[in-house]
Amino acid sequence: METPPICNYEGSDYQQSFWDQSDRAYEDAVEAVALRRLLPAGGKRLLELGAGAGRNTPRYTGFEQVVLVDYSRTQLQQARSRLGAGPQYRYVVADIYHLPFVPGVFDAATMIRTLHHMAEPRRALDQVRAALQAKAVFILEFANKRNLKSILRFVLHQQTWNPFSPEPVEFAALNFDFHPATVRTWLRLARFTVQRQLTVSHFRIPFLKRTLPLRWLVAMDSFAQTTGNLWQLSPSVFVRCQAAGETAAAPEGWLFACPACAAPLDDTPPRLVCQQCGRSYPVEDDIYDFRLEA
Ligand SMILES: C[S@@+](CC[C@H](N)C(=O)[O-])C[C@H]1O[C@@H](n2cnc3c(N)ncnc32)[C@H](O)[C@@H]1O
Ligand SMILES: [Zn+2]
Question: Which residue has a Cα nearest atom 1 of ligand 1?
Fold first, then answer.
């Protein structure tokens, strides 16, 4: 099966330009609130998909290990500089469409600001589900096409695409907004049960961000988030799901599997070699590289 196109962040200064040097303290703070509300108290191993430079990783307290996955090696290098090396973090360069893990090795996963780069979200969600144990928690954030701003623009004929229609809208190359009902359907088909939805970033409006104190905006958004099960009209939605159905128990002691042929891989840095298909995967500066077309 052909691999879907990947939004390439290699060499990008995303963390600096988007978060550190731009006025996004509000967005960051309200995401922290949503994560606090949705995260389980702790667990063994959490999979962070599209981890980028590890902006959210310190929020996953209570887990013995966090495995950061990103397709960009330079993003993970930044994450490693920020978080350090150590047994509690694993840095894994891999494609979400070809995850390099044995089935059922994670008891939690998050995917924040990443689904919006997926041209084939169903396929990505199937991969996530396969890596999770039964009853594992999965927190998914997605960009909502049916938000108040897009509705207004549509009504005023400033936007051609319909925010109420179920299909994704690709507003820039490999940047998609999704309809909340469509995402819920995909989650169900991928064997997830939706437990709770939070709507996030209601006040992502430059004028409000300029004029109101940050703590007011965060307090207002924290309150508005709690209506997320009733309606979803904010630009960002967080969904807490549980892995439904059964998953084959992870074979004891294994974490990695060959992303090409799925055979379990011995964890033998500086190179992991697949005994089944012969491919090998380098480990450099604590960063595992499972890209199939590196
Ligand atoms: C907008 S950034 C979000 C980073 C982080 N989650 C945050 O919220 O700060 C999206 C990340 O998804 C990663 N990404 C995009 N497509 C991917 C894929 N197919 N497999 C793995 N990572 C991918 C990018 O490299 C990028 O680091
Ligand atoms: Zn193999």
Answer: 113
Long-range contacts at 282-288 (CB < 8 A, ≥ 24 apart): 285/77, 285/80, 286/80, 286/85, 286/91, 287/73, 287/76, 287/77, 287/80, 287/91, 287/92, 287/93, 288/90, 288/91, 288/92, 288/93, 288/94, 288/100, 288/256
Q: Give mean pLDDT, residues 244-271.
A: 92
The pLDDT score that the predictor gives to residue 294 is 57
- Is pLDDT above 80 for 248? no
Which of the ligands is closest to the CA of residue 94?
1
Report the separation in Å between the CA atom of 115 and the middle of ligand 1, taken as the mean of its atom positions.
Answer: 8
Domain limits, the chain? 14-289
Confidence band (pLDDT; 50, 70, 90) for 255? very high
Backbone conformation region of residue 229, classed left if phi is above 0, alpha if psi is from -120 to 50, else beta: alpha
Residue with tokens 């996530």: 128
Walk across the sheet containing 236-243 and list its strands.
Answer: 192-200, 236-243, 132-143, 106-111, 43-49, 63-70, 89-93, 287-289, 280-284, 271-273
272 lines ligand 1 (CB under 6 A): no
> Looking at residues 257-271, what average pLDDT do you find?
97
Mean pLDDT value of segment 171-187: 97
Q: Which two tokens stand for residue 68?
A: 């950061």
Identify whether the C-beta of residue 103 lies closer than 8 Å to the C-beta of residue 258. Answer: no
Ion ligand 2 — residues with CB under 5 Å? 258, 260-261, 263, 274, 276-277
Contact 254, 102 (CB under 8 A): yes
2 falls in which pLDDT band (50, 70, 90)? confident
Architecture of domain 14-289: 3-Layer(aba) Sandwich (3.40)
